[in-house]
Design brief:
Structural class of chain A: alpha/beta
Order of helices and strands of chain B: HHHHEHHEEEH
Distance between the termini of chain B: 32 Å
Strand order of the largest sheet of chain A: 9-10-8-7-11
Shape of chain A: globular
CATH superfamily of the largest domain in chain B: Glutaredoxin
Helix content of chain A: 40-55%
CATH architecture of the largest domain in chain A: 3-Layer(aba) Sandwich
Distance between the termini of chain A: 68 Å
CATH topology of the largest domain in chain A: Rossmann fold
Radius of gyration of chain A: 24 Å
Shape of chain B: elongated
Number of strands of chain B: 4
Number of helices of chain B: 7
Oligomer: heterodimer
CATH topology of the largest domain in chain B: Glutaredoxin
Chain lengths: ~525, ~160
């Protein structure tokens, strides 16, 4: 059993924190605590991201509920001496947004000051040590798996997931329960569960933070899915660039095997399930599920023609369920709390929460998890802390590079699949790029189209040729040389691609191009 | 071919034994082999692996040219991959690329004469909170400025 401490100090240690000196801060905290003879009373724990992005290295002190930002070894020394030793909170270092009501310190991200924030997927991220399965278990971890295997049949679980209304969080928003049911109904074995962790959408790092902050959640979600569809083997396909995610998840898998949540005859109920990590080698298109399966088979990551869908002919031509990291991370909560509780969060057509990565010209960039249906305006004003000083909101791109660009007139649209689709954009991966009045839309579009041109796999002609045509036309726009015909051609080319390309990569440029021309037409000619 | 010495062949064989390519491991296998040959997969090496794995050379060559982490040409000891996705673009990744080009005297896709550095660009590295960002081998770097670039590069010389 873990030892009990009077105080726990959580040091946010994901890769971005480490780049800002989290390791040095942690070492200094430990050194100073040791010096004062407090090592038996105070534990310093490395955790995942605490939800702040531009506050430097952040530490969270429990049970005092204090967040310190911009930590340095020097500040760490002061905090240990003043706060941990003498009991005086060092107000100057406290993150100001968490200071409300005359020094009453509140947690901005969790719940108190921000009623709309709801943590389902990020529950535990930043609160527990991702390297220790016992902490996850203490946080109700693996309870859902135990419940699933011992109390439910696979059919029950599929019904719960269907009733919950959970939709795929990778971008397409397909109903998860239906996907599970289709795969379960195929009479062919072996079957596989694949977790798509090839997170490559520019501006998106939610899956990375889930994997680094609470890797067991994914393992649990996958095991429940496997039980429901009748699979005995699972794979997590992680992009090669995510070295830390690979390491954290591998450690978690090893621990789960040791305790017996993975392996043969799990909980003595005759259910076998094992997970392996497969790493990518640098190709955005592999986030497309059929390209991902080809990549796993050791082929070029070209998307396949659908149908057949992966649920009938997936990995090695066997029935395969492919789900995004965030989708699977929702599963344990739903099993634990039930479909009805889940439906109380979010909107009618899209229940649940969404993890957004908020970037660009706002004061607080970072990761938030909020109920579906919140408006963009609320996200910017409440969680983003408003626009950067002296800047005004001009546009936002929702859903990553494949999403549309919307103007201020639309910033009260609810953030959920259907409402966003109605105005021509998408919820996509949940990346929100906020642009201020200094940004020129065609310039941003050009950067996006260069990205698509680079990442096009080259298999189908409309995409291979089309992405290049789009770049050339946009270069003319940026250089103020474009005629009205050029802009028409830009739009029609992307529209043809949208209708004829094999996968989402070639279909996507139309979304930002169409919305840009529609809402910011004057910048093109 | 000179590069495929008996010793290297033995090393490749050992790597092949470690992985089950029917279990999704081909890319990981190639990544490890690549480290034996200046971060590259020359065609002769692919041919050798192909015979061992009973996979056609066309497939392995196709794979080696598809993924940005592979190369058929020898690369430097340090592979610098600068993120050029829109969030980094917004934070000035262009000036970072220019700075590295100037410092090393090479263009994107090239390797320094001493075989130390190769410059590449990359799609989103997922550390947008510290944009502009880059990776050198497995190590990430963020909040880049031209000064910081100079400092990082000189620490590797």
């Amino acid at each position: 059993m873990s030892k009990l401490y009077r105080m726990n100090v959580l040091v946010s240690s994901d890769i971005t924190d480490l780049l800002q000196g989290a390791k040095e801060v942690k070492e200094e905290l430990e050194l100073e605590i040791n010096k004062l003879g407090l090592s038996d009373e105070i534990a310093v724990v490395e955790t995942g991201n605490l939800g702040f992005a531009n506050k430097g290295v952040v530490i969270y002190v429990l049970p005092d509920n204090v967040y310190y930002g911009f930590m340095t070894p020097e500040r760490a020394r002061i905090v240990v001496n003043e706060h941990f030793y003498k009991g005086r909170v060092v107000k100057d270092f406290v993150i100001s947004d968490t200071l409300k009501d005359n020094n009453k310190i509140e947690y901005a991200i969790n719940k108190t000051t921000l009623p709309k924030q709801k943590r389902v997927v990020l529950r535990g991220c930043g609160m527990l040590n991702p390297d220790d399965i016992e902490e996850y278990i203490a946080f109700d971890g693996y309870e859902a798996l135990v419940k699933a295997i011992t109390e439910y049949t696979p059919e029950d679980i599929i019904k719960i997931i269907k009733d919950s209304g959970l939709r795929g969080r990778g971008g397409a928003g397909f109903p998860t329960g239906m996907k599970w049911e289709f795969t379960a109904n195929v009479k062919k074995s072996p079957k596989y569960v694949v977790c798509n962790a090839d997170e490559g959408e520019p501006g998106t790092f939610k899956d990375r933070l889930i994997m680094e902050g609470n890797p067991h959640l994914i393992i649990e979600g996958m095991a429940i899915a496997a039980f429901a569809i009748g699979a005995e083997k699972g794979y997590v396909y992680i992009r090669g660039e995510y070295a830390q995610s690979i390491e954290k998840l591998q450690r978690a898998i090893d621990q789960a095997k040791m305790i017996g949540f993975l392996g043969n005859d799990i909980l003595g109920k005759g259910f076998n399930f094992d997970i392996e990590i497969v790493t990518g080698a640098g190709a955005y298109v592999c986030g497309e599920e059929t390209a991902l399966l080809n990549s796993m088979e050791g082929k070029r990551g070209n998307p396949r023609v659908k149908p057949p869908y992966p649920n009938t002919a997936g990995f090695n031509n066997q029935p395969t369920l492919v789900n995004n990291v965030e989708t699977l991370a929702n599963v344990p909560w739903i099993i634990n709390n039930g479909a009805d509780e889940y439906r109380k969060i979010g909107t009618e057509s899209t229940p649940g929460t969404k993890v957004f990565t908020l970037l660009g010209s706002v004061n607080n960039t970072g990761l938030i998890e909020v109920p579906m249906g919140i408006t963009l305006k609320e996200i910017i004003e409440i969680y983003g802390g408003g626009m950067k000083k002296g800047r005004t909101f001009k546009a936002a791109q929702t859903g990553g590079t494949s999403g549309g660009i919307i103007p201020r007139a639309l910033w009260e649209v609810p953030m959920e699949y259907d409402s966003l689709a109605k105005v021509g954009t998408a919820l996509g991966s949940g990346a929100l790029l906020i642009m201020d009045d200094t940004v020129e839309i065609p310039d941003m579009l050009l950067s996006m189209m260069k990205f698509f041109r680079h990442e096009s796999c080259g298999k189908c002609t409309p995409c291979r040729v089309g992405t290049d045509v789009l770049v050339r036309l946009l270069e003319k726009v940026v250089n103020k040389e474009a005629s009205k015909e050029d802009v028409d051609l830009l739009l029609s080319t992307s529209e043809v691609m949208n209708k004829t390309c094999l996968c989402a990569l070639g279909q996507s440029p139309y979304i930002p191009i169409n919305t840009s021309i529609k809402y910011f037409h004057h910048e093109f000619v | 071919m000179a590069i495929l010495t008996e010793e290297k062949k033995e090393q490749i064989d050992k790597i092949i034994e470690k992985y089950d390519i029917n279990d999704g491991a081909l890319l990981m296998l190639l990544k490890e082999v690549q480290e034996l040959f200046d971060n590259s997969l020359p065609v002769d090496v692919l041919d050798y692996i192909g015979h061992k794995l009973e996979r056609p050379l066309s497939q392995l060559y196709g794979v080696s040219t598809f993924y940005s982490m592979f190369s058929n040409k020898p690369r430097g000891k340090y592979i610098i991959r600068i993120c050029e996705s829109p969030p980094c673009h917004l934070m000035g990744s262009d000036s970072i690329i220019d700075c590295v080009k100037r410092e090393l005297g090479i263009d994107v896709g090239e390797t320094t004469k001493d075989g130390k550095f190769t410059l590449e660009t990359s799609s989103c590295l997922g550390i947008c909170a510290v944009a502009p960002a880059m990776m050198i081998n497995d190590q990430m770097y963020g909040n880049l400025t031209p000064d910081k670039i100079k400092q990082i590069l000189s620490s590797m010389h």
